[in-house]
């Protein structure tokens, strides 16, 4: 998995995909404490708690927060999210807006950093060790809600604890459902031709062959992320392509291509390419071409970000897309990659003159109360309770209006998000995918343990040459430019490209991470 640096634009693109869903049998969002029948009690309790706490608020304070400047939801100082922060914490917030990819670096070098900063993991690794960000692990006594959050979210905790035990940021959680890759298909075409939804890759091949016969100029199976799509296909074969924690023994790092199931996966893709069931330009397929294939009866089964189901359904004039369970390639369980994680979080400037207020802000947005208010707003102001369920006011016509009108789910306005708030504004018939997808997540995420700066520097060249080698050779196998009979030789040759050096370094990092997060 080659590391890519995120930008605010990239984050916005992922966030925007959280606008599409499917349909469940009850035409209701997934149940949770915030959308269940006792929502009125929860809301009333929140209001009561807020009222009783107002007299005991700390002294007023003001902090500056470095955050995104997104034209899709232009930042406003009078957003509801900032008003609720003031009401609950007595903190006034001034937004400092990013103007480009170098904005964070300029803020750090200026000597006058904002108190709280929206950051990505690469930023944390770079600036945290330089002393720009406060080590939050030293302040857990001041942030009991943050501590409780991390203790109850071990996946998040493992991502934020540095090799030496410091915590330079807290990664957001709850709003990352749009990052989930899923399978979906043209259910209208399947019904029209009396075709069964494939449950295995063998059945996927059979139904693709049948669709090719019916629609000769089609490529029934389509994807648009090139070789990176192996990250999505892999779990169907009980693997990820590169390094990850072995689900069978999470104390060990595994290189997925060494598993025999990886060869099976590549053999299937080679077969699909050879029989023209996948477009010949699968490696370079872009979003525009993918959209044209899916909307003109030229492709019928695909993998994409989950939000694309609703987006495409709104564009199709004749046809309909539906979520499908991932087909099994090996083993006995259908798996999707373990998605739903967010890519950015919040750090506190080590030079902040408002440290207590900055820490208080983090503790609020990572609390149960902060999660509820920063996700839903307040009863009578943003929503009412109807028949025991929360209902956003009529001015919120679609989910993205939460961002535009009130700033809900924009960067730095929340720490722990209740996704049911977003889902409640998605059409009932488009909620199915979000309800179903979590049922199929692979036991472990496709991620690597944090390296020290020395380890990262030592592996820079090795990681790059290993990645270039395996991606080049696997592409040849899929396209038929190298025979599958040479697969074992390919696996052996991985050793010539520092496989063991990389494996040993990540194993050391994993051992350290497990020790640090006990």
From TrEMBL:
Stored InterPro entries: Bact_solute-bd_prot1, SBP
Keywords in alphabetical order: Cell membrane, Lipoprotein, Membrane, Palmitate, Signal
Signal peptide (from-to): 1-24
Gene3D superfamilies, sorted: Periplasmic binding protein-like II
PROSITE patterns per the UniProt record, alphabetical: PROKAR_LIPOPROTEIN
Domain of life: Bacteria
Region feature Disordered, mapped onto this chain: 19-55
Record's compositionally biased regions (Low complexity): 30-55
Keyword Lipoprotein: yes
Record's compositionally biased regions (Polar residues): 20-29
Name of the protein: Extracellular solute-binding protein
